[in-house]
Amino acid sequence: MAQSDRDTQEVKTFEHNAKEGARAVIVYWLTRRFVLPFLLVALACVTAAFAKNGPVAGIISLVVFTGPVVLLALFWTGQLRRVWNYWAR
Questions:
Q1: pLDDT band, very low/low/confident/very high, at 40 (cuts 50, 70, 90)
Q2: Is 35 within 8 Å of 72 (Cβ atoms)?
Q3: CB 65 within 8 A of CB 42
């Protein structure tokens, strides 16, 4: 009976490690393929609007990009925190 319980616990630990390892790979891949390019494009658009059309256009562009950036940051910080907590322990 004790061997069966230990085997069950090892399987659960392995499944948890596999899930968290996959999460880390997905977060890393999405960061490189989506998050960083999106943030750079948003920053470039705000800077270009400010430089080309003046401060009003820069502020409007900043307001337009603030919503998606905040949503992305809220989601992404949670995912990064979970990955960090897993790898830190």
A1: very high
A2: yes
A3: yes
